Amino acid sequence: MGKAYRIRDQELPYFLIFQVVGWADVFTRKVYRDFILENLSYCRLEKGLYLFGYVIMSNHIHLVVQQKDGKLSDWVRDFKKFTSRKLLKLILENPQEMPQRINLI
């Protein structure tokens, strides 16, 4: 990881962007946006996340966050790991996505 993308001071608020692989328009569906909102709410209540603002676009998310315990890098790692796995599972189990999955095979 390059120096430009490192969280230098774990105590400060940061502007973060998370993008979907291939810029796929995942968040155009309400079920996936709702999952992100639930996940962020959980992080606020249970993981000590201060969420100052967010925008969910069709294929990426903007966040302004700070971590109460000064472990923002750990939170980013855990958030990305959990969110990517759960989103993929939701997509694969969603019958509405079946026509798109067939075209990928």
So, the CATH homologous superfamily? Answer: Transposase IS200-like
The overall average pLDDT, rounded, is 90
The value of Rg in angstroms is: 15 Å
Biggest sheet statistics: 3 strands, antiparallel
Shape: elongated
Uncertain segments: none
Number of helices: 3
> What's the architecture in CATH terms?
2-Layer Sandwich
Total separate domains: 1
Q: What percent of residues adopt helix (DSSP H or I)?
A: 40-55%
Order of strands across the widest beta sheet? 1-3-2
Question: What is the first-to-last residue Cα distance?
Answer: 32 Å
CATH topology: Alpha-Beta Plaits
Number of strands: 3
Order of helices and strands: EHEEHH
**CATH hierarchy class name:** Alpha Beta
Output the structural class. Answer: alpha+beta
Strand content: 15-25%
Topology:
Blueprint: E1 14-19, H1 30-46, E2 49-56, E3 60-67, H2 72-93, H3 98-104
Antiparallel strand pairs: 1-3, 2-3
Structural write-up:
With 105 residues, this protein is an alpha+beta fold. The chain has a single domain, classed as Transposase IS200-like (Alpha-Beta Plaits). 44% of the residues lie in helices and 21% in strands. It has 3 helices and 3 strands. A 3-stranded antiparallel sheet has the order 1-3-2. Helix 1 packs antiparallel against helix 2. The longest helix is centred in the last third of the chain and has 22 residues. The model has no long low-confidence stretch (mean pLDDT 90).
